[in-house]
Amino acid sequence: MKFVGKAKLLKKQIINEENFRFVIKRSDEMGCVYPGQFFNVSASKVGYPMLKRPISVSDVGEDTIEFTIKIIGEGTRAMLDYNEGEAVELMGPLGNGFEYGGYRKILVIGGGIGIAPLKGLINSLKKTEVEIHSVLGYRDAPYLYEDFAANSAICEIVSENDEQYNRGYVTDPVKKMLESEVYDMIYVCGPYPMLKNLTDLFNSKGFRAQLLMEEKMACGIGACLVCTCKTKNGDFGFKHSRMCKDGPMFYSDEVIFDE
Predict the structure, then answer these.
(1) Sheet architecture: strand order including 228-232
(2) 3-94, superfamily in CATH?
(3) Are 34 and 97 in contact (CB under 8 A)?
(4) CA angle at 114 for the pair 72 and 100, rounded to the nearest 5°
(5) Sign of CA dihedral 179, 185, 190, 196
(6) Where are the beta strands (DSSP E) in 1-63?
(7) First CA to last CA across the chain, in angstroms?
(8) CATH number of 105-256
């Protein structure tokens, strides 16, 4: 089911100078919303910028949906003009989210704003018997880590610049974990270089992971072919898959990363 319409903004919260949170009223017309899916959200209540922005779901409540939004341009900055109580125009849920269920031990790896959709995943799994290990990477001070720390048997936090935490990148603790632990599934979301480096690592060690990819989008329903990535097979040994329609979740052994 795909909802097209307006929903009430229940809460707007500034997280830091780059990120903020929207909590909107969830209606029955939206149907089931799964971790890893996204909504196309109107960037402005005045009609400009015109194109909606694809925003991943960062948590789902019984009657709420949460988005954690990074300010990366004119559109996402314009969203700050919305006030609590106002109606936000949006379309969704869109795309194919994470596949989960039946796993006993998983590894969750997030980088930057890519941590947000993984928050929804672990909150969906926290009432099950799955054992969760988490690795979170930040450029500066950590945020959105509380749910991971509360629901993970192991939660490693690394930062490129914050000296209060282990300095470095997620690849460092992940390498050590893959040498000592066996996981039924690995979930990853983060910037392109992180996904590529981790995929190279997984492929070299025979692990398979679910990657939540991102790319600039326009329509959000697979018609415009803007948000493509290379995946294996096809007439030329590869094909261009639409992130909004075929993804945004792809398995690590099917994605081809350009150098």
Answers:
(1) 238-242, 228-232, 255-256
(2) Translation factors (2.40.30.10)
(3) yes
(4) 145
(5) positive
(6) 3-14, 19-25, 38-41, 53-60
(7) 37
(8) 3.40.50.80
pLDDT of residue 50: 75
SS3 191: coil
Q: Name the band, by pLDDT with cuts 50, 70 and 90, for residue 225.
A: low
Burial status of residue 211 (CB atoms within 10 A of its CB: 0-12, 13-18, 19 or more): buried
Q: Where are the domains of the chain?
A: 3-94, 105-256
54-89: pLDDT as tens digits: 999 999 999 999 999 999 988 899 999 999 999 999
Residue type present at position 82: Y
Contact 93, 2 (CB under 8 A): yes
pLDDT digit string (tens) for 134-155? 999 999 999 999 999 999 999 9
Q: Can you list the positions of beta strands (E) in 125-214? A: 131-138, 154-159, 166-167, 185-189, 209-212
